[in-house]
């Protein structure tokens, strides 16, 4: 499966001048992460060294080397959201999910990541849940969102 | 008669339920047998009223907001389709003071049209700038019109756009590029996003004009990955523009070629720095390049390259349409034209205010913004993103003009304002500035890469009252090294918020 995804991403963007990021996005969009075997395959196809590909994967926040949880929740932690109380939400999320930012909750439901500005600064605080933007968050709204992501059985376990 | 109802498709409106509201209106209309056509427009920029629903009436568009799904039945009961009275009604949209007192040049169509409708674009003045550019005798006539307008780069550095174009036009070589920097990463800014989602064709038109001016046939838009809605809109707009012959090998039948490719960034703030953006566009780590050479001489793939941000390029069509002088008649001093200011953070009425340069922070924060959302006193405003200083109320009356504002210790940057109330701990905000720099530094130069981490540690010691005096001196010394020793604005300006917090809010470092 991961082999197909790599082939498809290369077929789609491999011809673009300087298109390495687009190829990696193609893989990440399909698999959620950049698996280790992708590094050599992409390097060979684009006539780059493995070090160059690895260097790009490790530089950008968007490219994970490990598969994410079933959902990816990115909470904005930049200034405009901080001015509206995002840091309290950040703490509550870590406690609720039982993981720190940059980690996945123990049951594998949610990968929690920070993001620095979603451009929703006039409706702060904001988050991106599986690519969907949510604004004007409150503790209560956030609780309801997380309720829908984390199955009750999993939380008890 | 079919009623036309506008429900914004802008990401901010969608983030607070616009899709559900549009669906509820469609359902309720069907149940009541009212023929309704729902248009998903851009946002008017009155973000605190989103989702802002508008209804076309013989007297003009009438606004209701913020509309929740639960309000929809009551709106129908109040006959909102014919402009009926309701507690959420704001009267004619164009008469709302907040909007009526603006000078919308770049954002003239945003919120009014269907963003992807080619017909709407043409009917509302679109393509006139491009046609004027195509009828110009030479590229340099286009360049000189932009020089005359006084337009300066809206991304933050405020370099005169026409002068930059002149350099690219004069650089030798058959292959040149136009790169649009759409990596709008500064917190408190969203004008690029609003424009790309609300009027994408104006950006494509501006880039095409830039291509004609300097002799480039290929454009790239480098869009940050945090803007998935803008990506969808731009991809659809590029495809539609190609199909209509606005882009491609024969732009509007002129025989001139220009095409645009969208490239998605990957979550690195530093790629908003123009040379890091070029590296990223070339498929590399977003490491800052030393200058010279200027990108105008040796830019993307080593070729002469125009790099401007979204708002700069989107301001070009009206300049070509109305003439440089028309644009230059707005503004003050050397800051000509208008700037879309963005009111964000802890503010009662947040959103987009496009005004000529020369108004003050006080007007923006209080007259437009209405003070804080929390109702508490305003303590600080950060202008110009994470690299901009924090300003106290004593600076609120300085006119927003690049030079005058800089002389008062501010930085207009991308025009974003983040408002904080009196609960903010400015020592923590200073720490965050260093922390953000440590997270986002590209690592090329030492002052930025190491200095930011040391900065976090020193501020932590100050906050814990460990040898506070010497550590405060050390922090200033470190800021001096970063300011003068960094390769780009990331490390060079990170001290600005730190030092401004120390200067204006010293009590927060003494707790």
Automatic annotation (TrEMBL), chain A:
GO terms for molecular function: 2 iron, 2 sulfur cluster binding; metal ion binding; oxidoreductase activity. Its cofactor is [2Fe-2S] cluster. [2Fe-2S] cluster binds at residues 76, 81, 117, 121. Pfam families: 2Fe-2S_thioredx (PF01257). InterPro entries: NADP_DH_HndA-like (IPR028431), NuoE-like (IPR002023), NuoE_N (IPR041921), Thioredoxin-like_sf (IPR036249). The keyword Translocase does not apply. Binds 1 [2Fe-2S] cluster. Keywords: 2Fe-2S, Iron, Iron-sulfur, Metal-binding. CDD domains: TRX_Fd_NuoE_FDH_gamma (cd03081). The keyword Cytoplasm does not apply. Belongs to the complex I 24 kDa subunit family. PANTHER family: NADH-QUINONE OXIDOREDUCTASE, E SUBUNIT, POTENTIAL NAD-REDUCING HYDROGENASE SUBUNIT. This is Formate dehydrogenase subunit gamma. It comes from Nannocystis pusilla.
From TrEMBL, chain B:
The keyword Transferase does not apply. Residues 427-472 form the NADH-ubiquinone oxidoreductase 51kDa subunit iron-sulphur binding domain. The keyword Iron-sulfur applies. GO terms for molecular function: 4 iron, 4 sulfur cluster binding; FMN binding; metal ion binding; NADH dehydrogenase (ubiquinone) activity. CDD domains: TRX_Fd_FDH_beta (cd03063). Pfam families: Complex1_51K, NADH_4Fe-4S. InterPro entries: NADH-UbQ_OxRdtase_51kDa_CS, Nuo51_FMN-bd, Nuo51_FMN-bd_sf, Nuop51_4Fe4S-bd, Nuop51_4Fe4S-bd_sf, Thioredoxin-like_sf. Keywords: 4Fe-4S, Iron, Iron-sulfur, Metal-binding. Belongs to the complex I 51 kDa subunit family. This is NADH-quinone oxidoreductase subunit L. The lineage of its organism: Bacteria, Pseudomonadati, Myxococcota, Polyangia, Nannocystales.
């Amino acid at each position: 499966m991961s082999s197909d995804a790599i082939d498809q991403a290369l077929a789609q963007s491999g011809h673009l001048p300087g298109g390495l990021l687009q190829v990696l996005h193609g893989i990440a969009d399909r698999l959620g992460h950049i698996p280790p075997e992708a590094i050599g395959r992409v390097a060979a196809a684009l006539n780059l060294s493995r070090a160059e590909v690895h260097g790009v994967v490790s530089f950008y926040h968007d490219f994970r080397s490990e598969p994410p949880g079933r959902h990816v929740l990115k909470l904005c932690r930049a200034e405009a959201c901080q001015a509206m109380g995002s840091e309290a939400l950040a703490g509550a999320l870590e406690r609720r999910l039982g993981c720190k930012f940059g980690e996945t909750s123990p049951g594998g439901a949610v990968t929690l990541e920070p993001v620095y500005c979603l451009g929703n600064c006039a409706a702060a605080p904001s988050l991106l849940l599986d690519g969907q933007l949510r604004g004007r968050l409150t503790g209560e709204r956030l609780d309801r969102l997380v309720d829908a992501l984390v199955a009750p059985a999993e939380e008890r376990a | 008669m079919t009623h036309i109802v506008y429900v914004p498709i802008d990401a901010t409106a969608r983030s607070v339920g616009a899709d559900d509201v549009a669906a509820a209106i469609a359902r309720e209309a069907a149940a009541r047998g009212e023929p309704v056509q729902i248009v998903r427009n851009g946002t008017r920029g009155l973000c605190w009223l989103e989702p802002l629903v508008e209804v076309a009436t013989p007297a003009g568009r009438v606004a209701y907001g913020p509309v929740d799904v639960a309000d929809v039945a009551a709106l129908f009961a109040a006959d909102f389709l014919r402009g009926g009275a309701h507690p959420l009604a704001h009267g004619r949209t164009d008469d709302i003071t907040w909007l009526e007192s603006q000078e919308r040049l770049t954002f003239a169509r945003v919120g009014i049209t269907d963003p992807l409708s080619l017909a709407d674009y043409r009917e509302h003045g679109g393509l006139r700038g491009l046609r004027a550019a195509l009828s110009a005798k030479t590229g340099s006539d286009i360049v000189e019109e932009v020089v005359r307008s006084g337009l300066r780069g809206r991304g933050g550095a405020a370099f005169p756009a026409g002068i930059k174009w002149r350099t690219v036009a004069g650089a030798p070589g058959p292959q040149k590029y136009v790169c649009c920097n759409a990596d709008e990463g500064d917190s408190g800014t969203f004008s690029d996003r609003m424009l790309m989602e609300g009027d994408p064709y104006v950006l494509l038109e501006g880039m095409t004009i830039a291509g004609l001016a300097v002799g480039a046939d290929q454009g790239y838009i480098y869009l940050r990955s945090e803007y998935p809605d803008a990506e969808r809109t731009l991809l659809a707009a590029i495809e539609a523009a190609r199909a209509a012959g606005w882009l491609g090998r024969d732009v509007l039948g002129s025989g001139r070629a220009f095409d645009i490719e969208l490239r998605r960034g990957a979550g690195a703030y530093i790629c908003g720095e123009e040379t890091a953006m070029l590296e990223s566009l070339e498929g590399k780590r977003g490491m800052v390049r030393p200058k010279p050479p200027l990108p105008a001489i040796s830019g993307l793939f080593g070729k002469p390259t125009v790099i401007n941000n979204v708002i700069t390029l989107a301001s070009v069509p009206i300049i070509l349409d109305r003439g440089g002088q028309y644009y230059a008649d707005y503004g003050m001093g050397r800051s000509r034209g208008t700037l879309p200011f963005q009111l964000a953070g802890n503010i009662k009425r947040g959103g987009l205010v496009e005004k000529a340069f020369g108004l003050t922070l006080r007007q923006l924060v209080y007259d437009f913004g209405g003070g804080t959302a929390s109702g508490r006193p305003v303590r600080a405003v950060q202008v110009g993103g994470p690299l901009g200083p924090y300003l106290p109320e004593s600076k609120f009356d300085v006119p927003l003009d690049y030079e005058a504002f800089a002389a008062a210790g501010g930085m207009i940057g991308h025009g974003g304002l983040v408002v904080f109330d009196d609960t903010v701990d400015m020592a923590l905000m200073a720490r965050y500035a260093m922390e953000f720099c440590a997270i986002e530094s590209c690592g090329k130069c030492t002052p930025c890469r190491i200095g930011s981490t040391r900065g976090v540690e020193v501020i932590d010691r100050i906050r814990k009252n460990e040898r506070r005096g010497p550590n405060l001196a050390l922090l200033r010394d470190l800021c001096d090294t970063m300011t003068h020793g960094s390769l780009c604005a990331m490390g060079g300006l990170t001290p600005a918020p730190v030092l401004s917090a120390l200067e204006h809010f010293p009590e927060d470092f003494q707790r």
